[in-house]
Amino acid sequence: MVTVLIAILLPFVCAALIPLLYRRLRRVTHLGWFVLSVPFILFVLLARYIPQIAEGKTFIHTYEWIPSFNINFTTYLDGLSMIFGLLITGVGSLVILYSIFYLSTKESLHHFYCYLLLFMGAMLGVVFSDNLMILYTFWELTSVSSFLLIAFWHHRKASRAGAKKAMMITVFGGLSMLAGFLMLYVASNTFSVREIVANVEVIRDHALFTPALILILLGAFTKSAQFPFHIWLPDAMEAPTPVSAYLHSATMVKAGIYLVARFSPIFGGESIWFWLVSVIGLVTLFWGSFNAVRQTDLKALLAFSTVSQLGLIMSLFGLGSVGHYYGYAESSIVYTQASFAALFHLVNHSTFKGALFMMVGIVDHEVGTRDIRRLGGLMSLMPVTFTIAVIGSFSMAGLPPFNGFLSKEMFFAAVLAIRDVEAFSIADVGLFFPFIAWVASIFTFVYSMILIFRTFLGKLQPEKMDRKPHEAPFGMLISPIILCLLVVGIFFFPNVLGHYILEPAMASIYPTFPSSSELTPHIHAWHGINAELWMTLGVIIIGIILFKTLKSWKPLYRIFSQKYTFNTYYNRLIEISENGSEKLTRKYMTGNLTHYFVYIYVFFIALIAGYFIWSDAMTFHFDMDSVIESYELILVFVMIFAAVWMIFAKGRVTAMLLNGVLGYSIAFFFVIFRAPDLALTQLVVESVTTALFLLCFKYLPDLMPEAPPKRVQWSKAVISIFVGATVTMVGLAVVHYDRFEPVSTYFNDAYELAGGSNIVNTILGDFRAFDTMLEVVVLLIAGLGVYTLTKLKPRKEEADREN
């Protein structure tokens, strides 16, 4: 499907063009207007397929890449990937529009938009990839590009630290996920997600199925900031507000959510999947909301609220996995509603949280501070921004008439319904789910009220503000206003979203269920007087009481000592690792070349000889060897004589000539063994190197005699003998080594493989050319690095800020 391929590649192409065009574009218009066209066009292209996706159609296309290893660029557009594709491009368009008015033209805009497009393309690659290896490639590219975005203001120490922490935690999870993908491949013999889902019953009993499940969840939990990996998200708020609004409301943190949703058909019926996803999600929900209340920085508050909301969505997918356990039955449809609520809240969260991040950016941009203790009384001065804050915060708190109320009610219904599940021993802890959900929702209500009342109401404190407060320019208000209109519009017309967007996504999560329409409930605001309503009323009443008495009970947070936080443990781990690495490096990096050779040779002996001995492959059979001719023995003795004499040579020139004797003797052996091409190459290389060395050594002083201790001499002699013996024995053993299939069998049909009737020519023409291409790429990268270091000097104002 060409559209999906365009959606993935267009951001990368435009990112590559930005360095070439930005100097010309900035003379005519803001660079952001050019970049804005990319996600907008992609959003329109994807939106054209909504009716077809709603009818149950899917679009798949495979571009062969490495078919011999089952690695192909397979794009897949279905209901689930459509939701994320629309969020990535739709919210991306609004974020770029917002950034045009938020970022100063004095900023390094070409770098910012280049990084943003790289991230957008990587996220689209993640959600549209069917091949696990391609998905992983884009997954790690999101980590790299998000690192660049978070560290955009690299002159700030906090920005660099936040980017580093996000990179380390998410890359660790990515590597774990890669191991899980490889285990799935071993179990299923395919990298295709669709094929794994189709054959899931065959691989459930495989020994690697559960380890793969755990490792893949590690990748999802780290990327979506689940407890205890959530610590990177608050520090990532040092990024510019457009980055926070994009990465941490609609895209990067949702990648982990996408992974869980995509792999639910594979692992959903397993009890360990249910407990890990639902419990970790609930703990994250509570811990994020609990810590959001104590924050005094608006972006920090939103960061922990994002952690909390991600935990809510994750827990819903965990609860919805019960539907896979029971399978399709009328009585079990109720358990699939949790997944529907997760998808619904996924969209709702992107709308109200994106608007709130932009609102905070406006306050910071126009007032000069995000510190709640310095804010207040802004409602009359910034009425539009205040309205955005009210709509976003009330939706986040789960109040009508906003979309967050609808998905929050469905969340309460899901945690109440889970008490009736008989599988997975839930009955023993059934009350745990609704209680934690209810308590966390109370804290959500409290921090939502803090966001509104402590920022916009109360007494104005102009003496504590860096700038005179005033309303933001209209251009900066357009994007959050659009998001707020969606927040209200979805509340009044939720079933349009449910039918065209959420229903086909449910079909992707439950592919074995015959009808996705039965999985999609009719969304309405009033459900009558039921338990969900009483839980909501309790949240509002107790939330108001806690907000009004905040000063009296907020000191309780001091009980939680900073010495025992996850951030402290992370910093200690980093400190211990750095100190340990430094001490270890100092021990072996002595500056003595002899020591380095000892390390290399000892490692070589231990690895190569150790493996051959351990695998019982060090065996020799001389009965079938060829007869050794007399002239071959003469050449051997000449080489032995030259090698031994070289050790005792007193001059560099003599040693170099003896080394040439060794090289030419090897060339003679190539002639004897009927390899004239190798002999010619050896002669040319040996002649050139000998001449060059002789030219250089002529101007160097003679070798100074050394008198190292006997212990050192004997150790060198022992290592030399063992290295020589290892190479000799390996050379003899490989002739009879039968642990692996010989490489030569791959080239049995050289003509069919590469169109060459001569195997040697095929190897040289195909694979040597490929190797040369990679060498050229390495040289190109090195050249670009040198050019960057020498030509792209930091601007004077950046250097002054560093100083």
Automatic annotation (TrEMBL):
Domain MrpA C-terminal/MbhE: 717-797
Domain MrpA C-terminal/MbhD, first and last residues per copy: 638-701
Keyword Cell membrane: yes
Alphabetically ordered keywords of this record: Antiport, Cell membrane, Hydrogen ion transport, Ion transport, Membrane, Sodium, Sodium transport, Transmembrane, Transmembrane helix, Transport
Compartment annotation: Cell membrane; Membrane
Superkingdom: Bacteria
Membrane topology: Multi-pass membrane protein
Sequence ranges assigned to domain NADH:quinone oxidoreductase/Mrp antiporter transmembrane in this UniProt record: 129-419
Transmembrane segments: 6-22, 31-50, 79-100, 112-128, 134-154, 166-186, 206-222, 243-261, 273-293, 300-320, 340-363, 375-397, 431-453, 474-493, 533-550, 596-614, 626-648, 655-673, 679-697, 717-737, 772-790
Residue intervals of the NADH-Ubiquinone oxidoreductase (complex I) chain 5 N-terminal domain: 66-113
NCBIfam families: 2a6301s01, PRK12645.1
Protein family per UniProt: Belongs to the CPA3 antiporters (TC 2.A.63) subunit A family.
PANTHER family: NA(+)/H(+) ANTIPORTER SUBUNIT, NA(+)_H(+) ANTIPORTER SUBUNIT A
Name of the protein: Na+/H+ antiporter subunit A
Species of origin: Lysinibacillus irui
